[in-house]
Description:
Layout: H1 3-19, H2 31-39, E1 49-53, H3 59-67, E2 71-76, H4 79-92, E3 98-102, E4 115-120, H5 129-136, E5 140-153, H6 160-169, E6 174-175, H7 176-185, E7 188-195, H8 198-219, H9 224-243, E8 247-256
Parallel strand pairs: 1-2, 1-4, 2-3, 4-5, 5-6
Antiparallel strand pairs: 5-8, 7-8
Helix pairs in contact: 1-9, 2-3, 8-9
Bound molecules: S-adenosylmethionine (SAM).
S-adenosylmethionine is lined by residues 25-27, 29, 54-56, 59-60, 75-78, 81, 104-106, 121-123, 126.
Amino acid sequence: MSDNxxxxxxxxxxxxxxxxxxxxxxxxxxxxxxxxALELVPGVGARxxxxxxxxxxxxxxxxxAESSPARIVAIDLHPPFIDALNREARRLGIxxxxxxxxxxxxxxxxxxxxxxxxxxxxxxxxxxxxTGLRDWRRLLSRDGHVALTEACWRKxxxxxxxxxxxxxEYPAIRDTATLLEAAEGCGYEIVGHFPLPASAWWDDYYRPxxxxxxxxxxxxxxxPDARALADGVQHEIDIWHACSEFHxxxxxxxxxx
Length: 257
Ligand SMILES: C[S@@+](CC[C@H](N)C(=O)[O-])C[C@H]1O[C@@H](n2cnc3c(N)ncnc32)[C@H](O)[C@@H]1O
């Protein structure tokens, strides 16, 4: 990579994280949905070892810690998210059972059977559902569980603009029944599943992100690369407004078979 290419890549990363900074979470989800999924996992207690993958700044890890006495290791690729979560855990006095680490969910150097529950909200798409479910299975104890959210089609015949958006952003999106079949094919049984409500998209994620996009656009009025980034995120939000009845996130709770 030339110095100029490296500088351009650095600027893109800096702009990306500026646009997404200060948000309560980095993807759709809500405390109520996290608690609803946790209730589907039997016997969570002080001896339960949880691995939260793609934790971001830890919205769900903090809910898990507040709702149970489990011990949690939370992993994300982005060091500033990890620093923020460790700071918050210390502030709350729970750093003895919630530890955030920088790591790659696609290359986890962790021991076999080291966890009882793997949590992954809005992040398994980074490695792909099948790859994640198959690779992470070895990390789980015999009766281990996985809880994840993943984008799904909810209704047949979505509008063309919605199809075009997903074809460009995440062509692996499928309907809920096909996603459940894929999870079963990876060696899990379905304990339960439910769709995220619209409020988990708008109130918890897109409304704060919309405020960020508006302020970011103001700050970078003369920078075409920043404007293009803001346009892309705005398009995603607009597509959600136009097509949210056709696509959403499904929360899946799975048990090792
Ligand atoms: C859409 S965000 C979801 C964050 C968080 N779970 C939430 O719901 O707020 C996806 C997260 O995955 C992280 N990520 C992307 N690739 C990753 C990888 N290979 N290993 C670990 N984390 C990754 C990103 O840094 C980001 O924080």
